[in-house]
Amino acid sequence: QVQLVESGGGLVQPGGSLRLSCAASENIFRLYIMAWYRQAPGKQREVVASIISGGSTTYVDSVKGRFTISRDNAKNTVYLQMNSLKPEDTAVYYCKGVGPRGDYWGQGTQVTVSS
To answer: What's the pLDDT at 27?
Structure first.
């Protein structure tokens, strides 16, 4: 069972930046896809960004040019660099890993963008 632990959330002003981290309990190279999702109050969970083992990335249109997903296989960690944050980015952010034995989720970290 892969354990995923997110960190790095918090309160930031509009236009600010945060970097989220997702630390895995085992070698993330075995996970085909790593992704960040978010869920705002009263809304469905949505995928924000994903990265495959080969390094290709995808982003939801609303964060393109502002967010960057990356992975450090040596540290078994996936990151989400979030710049130019907007109030509508406020949500609980979750890390997800997809591997040969199933899907794995972290517990989530709160991001609040407010002045």
So the answer is: 77
